[in-house]
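Teaching assistant here, posting this on the class forum so everyone can see the example we discussed in section. The complex has two components, and the goal was to see what a joint structure prediction looks like when all of them are supplied at once.
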Amino acid sequence: MSELSVEDRERFEKLVLPHIDAAFNLARWLLRGRSDAEDVAQDALLRACRFFGGFNGGDARAWLLQIVRNTCYTWLEKNRPMELSTEFDEELHRQTSTTPETLAIIADDHKRLTLALETLPPRFREVLVLRELEGCSYKEIATITSIPIGTVMSSLSRARRQLYSALTNSSQGACP
Amino acid sequence: MRCDFSDSLLQEYFDDELTANAAEEFERHLRHCACCATELVDLDLLRDRLHLAQLYEPATASLRWRINGRFHPIRPKTPASKPLLWHWIAAATALLIIAVVLAKLGPLLQVDDYQAELAAEIVDSHMHSLQPGSTMGVASNDERMVTSWFEAKLKFAVPVRDFANEGFALKGGRLDVIEGRSVAVLAYERDGHPINVFVWRTREPETSARTGSRQGFQWVDWRKGKMEFCVVSDTKVADLEQLHELIDSST
């Protein structure tokens, strides 16, 4: 951190550090665990500080979350590459034990939703977490995830449908 | 069958991403499309459920601790001027004074740091216990039942007392890990305010009660008879001090 000037450091503390909750929350849901999320969020924050010079003064939260997301994916690739593979995307959420039946047995809604959300493929999970928990706009999500806005929209739609059917046994939007 | 709009316009409408004109146009469509109307209700139910479950997880106390440690204090702003002899003498004198003060206060400062870190972890754990989904290891107001539940799990005896007559109703107990060691947590309730009492074994000398607050929660901490106690809640400090006295006189 010695590379930063005192002014930059103060600016970093004022603009970026307040988003530490957002950073942790995203890491926690992408990595599905608090302890890994602490390590990776810390790593991301220190990286953000080191490269703060490259921040052009836009939306500091989106900028930080972009770094958190990339750090999470790099960590996943290294430590749990299976989770990022296509097989995981397309198959795992169907193969795991979290069928609607098992979810229904878990009485508590917090636990049930946590499990259902964690079972979604990471690409769906992240758009849902950014939209519903972090309150990001489509444009912000597109910036953070580096995917086009149209894809953000369709991922969000599919993520919601999957979550809904994991929770209810039925598919969402079945027309009368 | 799904409506053609359900992936795009419907999502945008639901997420407030449409311009006013486009939203109005979509509302006209909505009046005739039962499919979109039903799906909108489903989306709304799902969002409510996600919000009610309070899934957002703010940074843990230990992450805050780790990050804050890296950033404070900020280095002085003014660039160093050319050092003069008297600067060196002043600096050396200052260092000497600091060294002496630190030698005297060092242990005290460490205690403060330790206390702050401990309080952060305990308040964090207390907040977690308030979230929906956190479970009690044993939910009972029966002193003997809670005592025996702890007996099977911990290497030390946990003093379990129900102070319902004094207004502190025992709710049960659970285990937690604070600073890497197993601690017993006794759950009480006072006028609807949950109170957690953290109890663990310590080798440190006994202390009288110290109080503090953090993120809107108050805590009272003391050590007695090889045990450390920390009471934490969002209720009045006076209540916590009363509970401290009750526990203190029963141990």
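For the discussion questions: Chain B has two domains: 9-52, 117-250. Residues 85-130 of chain B form the longest helix (46 residues). Think about how each of these relates to the inputs above.
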